[in-house]
């Protein structure tokens, strides 16, 4: 009985958790680098880099994250973002702050089309 209640609590916590989103596309645009060039510099396949870029990855090695940051000359916080489920005022502020990057990306690049 106690164990069932504990499992329900853990499940509820998991459902309430937000998600980590990779904003690699923004840094690629700022650095004027292609996904394939980044994959080559990091030493992973284009398919795996695309999985990271599209947010379909379930996990990432810290060493891979470090290589991505080295290749893009950025900090982890430049490409990682925490999003709460259901929205949040801090999330909206982060999206507003992200618009500073948008001005650095050519309008016809197609990079941000799926984000907006």
Describe this structure in words.
The chain is mainly alpha-helical. The protein has a single domain, classed as 434 Repressor (Amino-terminal Domain), CATH 1.10.260. Helices cover about 60% and strands about 5% of the residues. The chain is built from seven helices and two strands; from the N terminus they run αβαααααβα. It has helices spanning about 1-15, 25-30, 35-40, 45-55, 60-70, 75-80, 90-100, and strands at about 20, 80-85. It has a two-stranded antiparallel ribbon. Helix 3 (about 35-40) crosses helix 4 (about 45-55) and helix 3 packs across helix 5. The longest helix has 15 residues, at about 1-15. It starts with a helix and ends in a 14-residue tail after the last helix.
β-strand percent reads 5-15%
Order of helices and strands: HEHHHHHEH
Q: How many E strands?
A: 2
| Helix content class | 55-70%
| CATH architectural label | Orthogonal Bundle
Outline type = globular
| Mean pLDDT over all positions | 76
**Structural class, from secondary structure content?**
mainly alpha
CATH topology description: 434 Repressor (Amino-terminal Domain)
Task: State the strand order across the main sheet.
Answer: 1-2
Reported for the largest beta sheet, the result is: 2 strands, antiparallel
Rounded to the nearest angstrom, the radius of gyration is: 17 Å
Give the low-confidence spans: 7-13
Indicate how many domains the architecture comprises: 1
